[in-house]
Amino acid sequence: MIPIVIARRTALHRVPAGWKLAGLLVLSIACAIVAREPVGAAAVLAATLLIYAAGGIGIAEWARQVWRVKWLVVLLVAMQAIFLGWADALTGTARIVGIILIAAAVTLTTPTGEMLDAIEAGLAPLRWIRVDPSRVAFTIALTIAIIPVIAQLAAQIREAQRARGVRLGVRWIVTLLVAALRHADDVSDAMTARGIA
Amino acid sequence: MIRATGLGVSIDGTRILEGVDVRLDQPRIAVIGANGSGKSTFARTLNGLVAPSEGSIEVAGIDVARDKKAARESVGFLFSNPDAQILLPTPVEDIELSLKAAGVPRGERTARALEELAARGLGDHAHQPAYSLSGGQKQLLALAAVLVRRPRVLVADEPTTLLDLGNTRMIGELLTGGVAEQVVIVTHDLELAARCDVALRFDAGRLAQVGEPAEVIDTYRAAFA
Questions:
Q1: pTM of the model
Q2: What is the least distance, in Å, from the CA of A148 to any CA of chain B?
Q3: If we measure between CA atoms, which residue out of A47, A123, A145 comes closest to residue B87?
Q4: Of the four listed, A42, A80, A132, A175, which is most buried by Cβ atoms within 10 Å?
């Protein structure tokens, strides 16, 4: 699940969204370069801990974010350990987790409205090729908002299967797709009614 | 004022609404009828979500088919499922989106959004994920997102269908408590319909009756006796 903005004001809240997004880009590239050896990977994780502590988000939130991606960590380590060995598996996974943690630090401290404005400003040059930056930014925000709704639809389908004692197998994806498309229709009506579309 | 003249709607060759002629000046208008009777389609013509195939519809002095933009500024629309209406992750951001669409300057949006949320009793939930709100709170948020633009007319399409008794009453009281110059409530909740000033009953795509809510509700009930 994409983390939601934490309500209390932290030092990172005060950093303009554009700077944070640019920082995310730079740090992600740095992570990829630095974390090629176990020492570098450990340094990347230590740096994320420092960002959370110094930025005012806190160590507890850092731990919570790591816990959120636990299954991804298991999967990445297991897959890479088979093909690359333990050392490379741990290094590669630490690199990815480091980037996820930095991205989470940005989303945790940036209200969606500010993020949208920054994305809109950053995408302004795309106007040259007739791309409307405000539409792109809104689409991203809408996607974030709709993820829990789609998760809820999936949960409803699972419950309906259990309640009726049936198993759809992979066909449940078709049912979810139909429900998601119906929801998209409703959202489209709401956007029109609210004067947004 | 709402005025429908020879209003008809056909979608993909199927006639959904026909020959609706009515003038409504009352502040609280209930619209009742069986499923598929055309009541929701009628409601959707009021802010241009559905375009008339025949005739015309005028709301707050605006010919809706001719000027949809003006109609959407003056006519707010509340759906039965708030999950489809809440478009951004947190309540404050969702209200800000309505203000942005209304052209409110960026600097004023947050303060006004927080004010609106506080007025609707959602002040403590402003920054909480919208998906974690209860059904009643979500519908309140959807309503706040409409009302923050101060529409002259509010259309609510089955606004209490997904709510429990307490929330049904709370939303019903809000809607009938003068939130706009005119409120049109499409509903199966006959208690709510009874609190309105006039009721419209649709049947098989036609406006079958317009009158005192008690009388219209009695006729509707008799059809199922």
A1: 0.76
A2: 7
A3: A145
A4: A80
Assess if CATH 3.30.430.20 describes domain B2-223: no
Count of all residues that appear for chain A in the document = 197
Per-residue pLDDT tens digits for A13-72 = 888 888 888 888 898 888 888 878 888 888 889 999 999 988 888 899 999 989 988 888
Q: Is the four-CA dihedral B128, B129, B132, B133 of positive or negative sign?
A: positive
Same domain, A15 and A95: yes
Which of A113, A186, A196 lies at the smallest CB-CB distance from B84? A186
Relative to beta strand B54-59, strand B2-11 is antiparallel
B86 contacts in chain A (CB < 8 Å): 145
Side-chain half-sphere CA neighbours of A150 within 13 A: 15
Residue A169's domain spans which residues?
131-193
| Count of CB atoms situated within 10 Å of the CB of B93 | 26
Q: What is the C-alpha separation between B86 and A113, in angstroms, rounded?
A: 15
